[in-house]
Amino acid sequence: MTGTNRREFLKNGLLVGSALLAPVSLMNVLATDNKSFKNNTVRLGVVGTGSRGTYLMELINSVSEQEGIEIVAVCDIYEPNLNLGKGLAPKAKAFTDYRKMLEMKDLDAILVATSLHQHAHITIDALDGGLHVFCEKAMARTLEDTHAMALAHLRTGKILHIGHQRLFDPKYLEGMKRIHDGVLGQVTQIRAYWHRNNDWRRPVPEDKPELERHINWRLYKEYSCGLVTELASHQIQVANWAKKALPVDVRGTGSISFWKEGREVHDNIALIYTYADGTQFIYDSMVQNKKYGFEEQIMGHLGTIEFETNRFFLEDPVLPKPAGIAQLIGNLESNIFGKVPIGSSSWAPEVASQYKGEPLVPVDKTDGTLEQMIGFARSVREGKAIDGLFEQCYYGSVWTMLSQEAIETGKVISMPENIII
Ligand SMILES: NC(=O)c1ccc[n+]([C@@H]2O[C@H](COP(=O)([O-])OP(=O)(O)OC[C@H]3O[C@@H](n4cnc5c(N)ncnc54)[C@H](O)[C@@H]3O)[C@@H](O)[C@H]2O)c1
Fold first, then answer.
1. Cis, bond preceding 138 (omega within 30 deg of 0)
2. What would the 3-class secondary structure string for 341-373 be?
3. pLDDT tens sequence across 221-274
């Protein structure tokens, strides 16, 4: 396919070639033999040793021997967090300026887990300095920065791996395979949501109120798009992966409906995406009720997948028939006889199916974050990115930014052609 054709496809919301990202390509990466890695350690620097950075460091430490990964440098501009990083990598060199870290001679890659608005310049400087980069999602605070990161990746040929761990989660890999094999039939609706019930604030030292914006960066527009970049970004990527496509447009709304304590980002958002085949993706997120938690529901005419809870449902499952007495009790309990007047038309109550479904994978013991770090280290060692992985994440971040634009402008937003790669 020529470059022009490819762009034309992408413009119309159709992912092509390697950007389709077959789940099997991710499974293959993890299935490769790592025994030869022993004498070829991947030397990693971590920029941003806050909550996520230190969590990723713990995971890396847990496999550093078997995977041959060593954290040789840590960097943070906030001393208490830099100390956390040093505690997890006592032999690593410590920095407060990432540019000094990039000058190290024996670094293979860096991991960026800073606040969102810092991702782009750190990543671009590292790629231009000849290093591979793992950068947490979402890619950047603005569409321009997101695009600039992609251009730096293409310009340098260095790996840019974005932290969408669901791409390495076995239940997602299995579920995506079934969706792409047509097991759900024609998928025409996706619903996803992420609900929490807390103010999302982190404590600020009483004697240092000036640290409020640094510590609670998620709540301020200069640094973050709040729920859109922090939570929805994951689920937008999942929807596109399931559809093997990009939306043609998005519309949305957002409000500060509950936490009116000075935050600038919305605490309540709703978005609708349309795909070229007519599929609707309906999304919402809030932080004032947690009853429904989080989920992505992929709905086809033959079945449904609920990824977060590892469930697969057929529309018409062949279930063992309950014994007569159990069936009668079931009918009485669901008030079937009360609801259907004898002798009337064939009306039946359309309440949700009580069918509990089946697990996608028998044991659900990982969310893919560890596997993602292993996948990154293996591709760094080979000097070769996993085919299609970057594009999948890039367009996820692009649509994350377009979602924010839809909420802020109240307009129906489509992807501008100039950011297609
Ligand atoms: N993939 C996931 O599921 C997931 C989960 C949580 C967070 N994240 C992402 O991880 C990133 C970090 O989130 P967090 O919760 O750890 O935030 P955090 O505030 O706990 O940590 C960010 C750290 O970066 C440091 N920092 C900021 N600018 C820096 C700079 N220029 N140089 C060096 N250090 C700098 C801060 O001092 C802080 O220690 C965000 O992009 C977030 O979206 C991803």
1. yes
2. CCCCCCCCCCCCCCCCCEECCCCCCCCCHHHHH
3. 999 999 999 999 999 999 999 999 999 999 999 999 999 999 999 999 999 999
**268 within 8 A of 258, measured Cβ to Cβ:** yes
| Closest atom, ligand 1, to C-alpha of 49 | 39
Whether the CB-CB separation of 133 and 376 falls below 8 Å is answered with no
Is 83 part of a structural domain of the chain? yes
**Domain range for 106:** 3-167+367-389
272, β-bridge pairs: 251, 282
Residue located via tokens 């069936």: 327
- Helix, strand, or coil here: 278? coil
Q: At 209, give phi and psi (nearest 5°).
A: -60, -20
Cα distance between residue 229 and residue 325, in whole Å? 52
- Residue 289 region by backbone torsions, left for phi larger than 0, else alpha for psi between -120 and 50, else beta: beta
Whether 210 is in a domain gets the answer no
Which atom of ligand 1 is the closest one to the Cα of 165? Answer: 1
Name residues contacting ligand 1 (CB within 6 A): 47-53, 75-78, 81, 98, 113-116, 118, 136-137, 163, 165, 230
Alpha carbon of 53 to ligand 1 centroid (Å): 6
The position carrying tokens 């009668």 is 328
Residue nearest to atom 41 of ligand 1 (CA): 116
pTM of the model: 0.92
Which residues make Cβ contacts (< 8 Å) with residue 341, sequence separation at least 6?
none
User: Atom 33 in ligand 1: which residue has the minimum CA distance?
Assistant: 76
**pLDDT above 70 (res 18):** no
Residue 86 domain-assigned (yes or no): yes
| Count: domains in the chain | 1
Is 21 contained in some domain? yes
CATH at residue 50: 3.40.50.720
